[in-house]
Amino acid sequence: MDNLIQINNNNFINFNSNKYNTVKLTDVLKNIFQNNKGNTITEETLLSLYYIFDQSIIASLEILDKELIRKYKFLPSERSFYVIEGRKGSKHMCLIDGDYCSCPSFNFVVLLKSESVYATEIMSNVKIEEFDDSEYQNKVKEIEEASLKTPTHRKGKN
What we know:
Blueprint: E1 4-6, E2 12-14, H1 25-35, H2 43-53, H3 56-65, E3 69-75, E4 79-85, E5 91-95, E6 100-101, H4 104-112, E7 127-132, H5 136-146
Parallel strand pairs: 3-7
Antiparallel strand pairs: 1-2, 3-4, 4-5, 5-6
């Protein structure tokens, strides 16, 4: 029972956890959407997600609502990554399988302070853009150049 979270009165989710007992949002969402028709989220489910992920679920839903996320898929290799449009037009690369995002809040809250699970970038109803494999490196470089830089990355700073 250690790896179970109750989502509603009838459903439990078996999640994968690491040594820090963090919950992967993708595991929770896959289970929710497998059990709900039409990819809808009930009020009860939203309350459960809020209980698990706190304020980060609100930011995640806002990203979806504003359609600020794209999936870049490269063919024929099937490699992919997600790009989230941040404030002021900045773009951040999100690696779902690697549990990583290049955004400043992920770096500060998750990596430096270890206070939050990674929940901002929900991956449902994402627009997919397909590219040839030969464009992979160029797209990665393009996203890195558009990323918001921290003050330590400004010219003249070490």
